[in-house]
Amino acid sequence: MPSRYTIKTFVENGYYHVYNRGVEKRKIFEDSQDYKVLLNYFKEALLPSPKLDDLKTIFTLQGTSFRGVRRLPKNFHQKVNLIAYCLMPNHFHLLLHQTERENIEGFMRSVFTRYSTFFNKKYQRVGPLFQGIYKAAPIQDDSYLLHLTRYVHQNPSEHNLDIKKAYSSYADYLGLRNTKWIRPEVVLIFFKSQTLPLLKKYNDYRSFVEGYKKDSREILGNLILED
């Protein structure tokens, strides 16, 4: 029987918690360059495509020179929004929003095929890098979305890592960084509107993440995805 959430039902304008880990729980990031390469793939996929005229270069093929554009990776600007992320040595968490039903599938296939190819070439390995098909759980309401960002940003602490130094979007949520292809405002607006009752005790996102007492796992249940 397939694992829960490996068979996915994607909907238009849906929010999803996406998770995967290395095959046999192996590392999928060996050094800082590996993290940065994947983050750059996110950037290329999520920012607007550059103008083709700006990308044209001179290249030679069989002795003949041409001016043109080399093949570009697929672009998902305004199709997929990255709400939050955390990259760990052997797994990752993404909170994604899509505008149309098939966008997340295309995004995941494009970005992680590129990354697997890069990783296997760099480390001279063959075969799958990830443990089967990624999991994607639908996020049904704002409170779950809020708690999932907390869980994702606290994930490093469960592995004895500093959440402020991790490869995650936490710094963007704290206003310490402004990454153009991450959308923290989708969640931070909750603190301005105070529409969620649980936030009445918290002035800002940091106080919620670091001060909320209840374990996110108790609230989120199957949305956690890790097993």
From TrEMBL:
<protein>
    <recommendedName>
        <fullName>Transposase IS200-like domain-containing protein</fullName>
    </recommendedName>
</protein>
<dbReference type="Pfam" id="PF01797">
    <property type="entry name" value="Y1_Tnp"/>
</dbReference>
<feature type="domain" description="Transposase IS200-like">
    <location>
        <begin position="11"/>
        <end position="155"/>
    </location>
</feature>
<dbReference type="GO" id="GO:0003677">
    <property type="term" value="F:DNA binding"/>
</dbReference>
<dbReference type="GO" id="GO:0004803">
    <property type="term" value="F:transposase activity"/>
</dbReference>
<dbReference type="InterPro" id="IPR036515">
    <property type="entry name" value="Transposase_17_sf"/>
</dbReference>
<dbReference type="InterPro" id="IPR002686">
    <property type="entry name" value="Transposase_17"/>
</dbReference>
<dbReference type="GO" id="GO:0006313">
    <property type="term" value="P:DNA transposition"/>
</dbReference>
